[in-house]
Predict the structure.
Amino acid sequence: MALLSTLDVVPTLLSILRKGSVSNELDGIDISPVLFGKDVNFDDAGDRILFFWRDGFEDGPLGPPYGRFDVAAVKVGRIKAWFWTKSAHYNDDTEVYHDPPLLFDTLTDPAEANPLDPADFNDILDRIHNSVHDHKKSVEWTYPLALARDPAFIPCVDKETGCRTVDNGDGVYQTVETV
């Protein structure tokens, strides 16, 4: 059994298109061997950690409904830990922080309806807390993607200058030539 995620789609497509390995900077892994029916020896599912980021937290650089961007849950093998819960993504209710996090066995309880006793999972909880800390330090952005100002994603304003713009510091965008 292998723990796969939608995060694996981009690394898999890049691997297929490049016909080689992909960057370690992506959260997912190349699962193309599974797609092509090859025998696969992925690392034990218990070793793989998936981080579930979301926005919509009250305290953040953007007003409602966007707020702050943070890790809401972590999955280690079949155990999923929820740090933050809310009724639905952009509902008006306030998010709730859980310490210790709510733990669920996603194989025996796929609806995540029956929390496990955290006292039975001290080793996993230590690993989760350390992993979240290290992961957040490795991420260069913790704000909603709507605040990103990469010129490559700003619409074309002048084809003669290469279409790209940059913020000159006062919120006014100037066109710049692309490299």
